[in-house]
Amino acid sequence: MTGFRKVLPFVLALLVVTAVSAATVSRAGLGDKLKKKAGDTANKAAGDALNKADPSKTTTGESTAPPADGKAAPAETASGSGDISGVSTKFDFVPGDKVLFFDDFTRDELGEFPANWKLKTGTFEVAERNGERWMRCTSSDSDIRMKLPPMPELPEYWTLELDFFCDQPSGNVLTVTGLHDETMVWNAVFPMSGRNLAFTTGEIFSNTPLDGPDVWGRVHHVMFMARGPALKVYVDRQRLANVPEINPEPGAPNGFSFRLWSDRQPMITNVRFAEGNKPVADPFADGKLVTYGIYFDSGSDVVQAESAPVLRQIAAYMEKSPAVKVEITGHTDNQGKEDENLDLSKRRAAAVAKVLSDQFKIAADRFKTDGMGDTRPVSDNARAEGRAMNRRVEFTKL
Predict the structure, then answer these.
(1) Considering only CA atoms, which of 295, 161, 183 is closest in space to residue 248?
(2) Residue ranges per domain, the chain?
């Protein structure tokens, strides 16, 4: 029994690598079909194999009714406000500030293939669920790629985020792979064995469980943060992989593969890939901090707990600099009415100040708040990437 336990992690790693390899090579010819079948068998054996429930009830071209307040039902999301200051310091994700790719599928027609993606394998369509657009996989296996700007390798500092949903238990559903051309450099599988995140790069393998409620039927926020050769992976507010150096042998990663492997119609949305941020000792070295790490639900001024890393950074700075006062300014994109955007941006700035005061114990009189709505864009609102950069919070030393 002891020997089996020692061998098991390596067997799981082999299954993961086999599965991803099947997704990232050409499928032309009988040999490739046989490899794919072997990969299918291995991946299904590694998962829960709980595939008796009905598929997701969302339908193409027909939205499910959202709750009266327009927000996702509490049982479907891992986000929430509450004790932001109590979020573990191991959750240190801060999104990059230069958006290279963003897609929430709002520019695509329902039922169509999304325009900003390249299909390698499988069948996808844009669907609507609880008032949000999603990219849904309707085949049992798939491989899809973002249409990224040409780059010989990924930036030294980058972040990748996406929301993931699968309604029913279905084994190892989501695989995100860092590629050098078509060769796997690293890959992350979620959920492995029902609730774990499995990460593989070279000879390194980890398999870490996600805390909290059941994985299925809930929206999960999946995040990657690279700092040179180091890579961290998070699900919701938990860090599930922390790798000091990815495998250098295949070459530097220059793209990603997304694989949805399930017959339960899993979905992803809000895919954001950005350059930065390089860690800095003084967040106000330039007199202003522009951040995309303050999270709110769409149309809401409730600060989400995923905002903890940035708020912790601001609070630490202000504790060390007791004479400093800060103006907090909210900004939106141009979607919706101007007066509503202006009001929302002001309320969000005030909400951030309140969290810093109430939960991080920074005196309220050290903050001034304002909102500019959509009147101060820093990028083109005609592009999804531009709108993502315009939705921001700025902290300015007074």
Answers:
(1) 183
(2) 74-80+87-275, 288-397
